[in-house]
Amino acid sequence: MASGETIASPPPVVSVIGLCYNHARFVAEALRSVCQQTYTALEMIVVDDASTDDSVAVIEAFLAEASPAFPVKKLFLPQNTGNCRAFNRGLALATGKYVIDFSTDDVMLPERIAQQVALFEQLPASYGVVFSEAAYIDEHGKHLGYHYQDKLRRLKTIPTGDVYTEVLQQYFICGPTMIVKKEVLDRMQGYDERLAYEDFDFWVRSSRHYGYAYLKDCTTQVRKLSGSLSTRVGKPGDRQRYATYRVCRKALRLSVTAKEKKALIKRIQYELRQCIIYGNKREARLFLCLLNMLQGKWNVYALLYKLTGSGIVKSVAKRLKKQTRL
After folding, report:
1. Chain center to CA of 124
2. Contacts within 8 Å (CB) and 24+ apart, 144-153
């Protein structure tokens, strides 16, 4: 080596944690999209959460045929544990600087990881998450639209940097597009396994300490399936509303400024209104308690709570939608 020359640092390793549960129809395409990334400093951890279909057989067959050029770790769980715990099991095996939580019914576009790492390496050390545009597809791969261009086109600007207040009061991040510094997940001790879903809790806890950056390029095809977790919100047996209450309770401790508390009030009002509309009386009572703690005075929601589930209160609650829209 000539005098004065420096040795280039190797590119940072990205750990892709592929979570599979009954994705036999889609998992080969998902794993292939990881193998076809232009970024090569990868490791893949495939976690099957006790699928009851042929997912494991499809995974084994694909990996045997594809022989990826990067390390692959397989973790086939004997019992279904749920998404949060399954991810944490995979996270324990991850060694990369960055981590992607990848559902194996989605598809990564070839440049995704290269684009996201390139942006991350230019950001200040205080940033912990990069997210991007996504395209939605159906079970047959048909294009349904874009996350920001179509679904959230009402947003004039997409929040970046310190987004804590924004994640409290509105939904805007497409979770499946995120790439996260592993130090963020380690600091948070992974996902909260007591919750029915992970994204809102992750956004609240991580954005309190780390910045978020937006990549405008479309990096991921997110598959929309009937019967998915998002389609069961508010229905009998659904645990997501209670999980959201627990996250809001955490946010009550984390929120310090008047602006942050105002954003949390907006979120609680929205969730309370949803509980009232869908007749989730237990969760409505819990959200009402949080609202009272923040506002310290009687409000219209106290009256609506008493009438939860009735036809007239559903009509009134829906009229409040404009003032508490997320």
Report:
1. 23
2. 144/224, 146/218, 147/174, 147/177, 147/222, 148/174
pTM above 0.70, yes or no: yes
Find the radius of gyration of the CA atoms of the chain.
21
Residue carrying structure tokens 């959230």: 152
Q: Which token pair is 17?
A: 């944690």
pLDDT by residue (tens digit) across 28-61?
A: 999 999 999 999 999 999 999 999 999 999 999 9
Is the distance from CB of 133 to CB of 174 less than 8 angstroms? Answer: yes
CA distances from 199 to 83, 123, 164, 245 (A): 11, 23, 13, 14
- Count of positions (residues) in the chain: 326
Alpha carbon 122 to chain centroid, angstroms = 23
Q: Which residues of 58-91 are buried (b: 16+ CB within 10 A; e: fewer)?
A: bbeebbeeeeeebebeeeebeeebbbbbbbbbbb
The two tokens of residue 227 are 């019967």
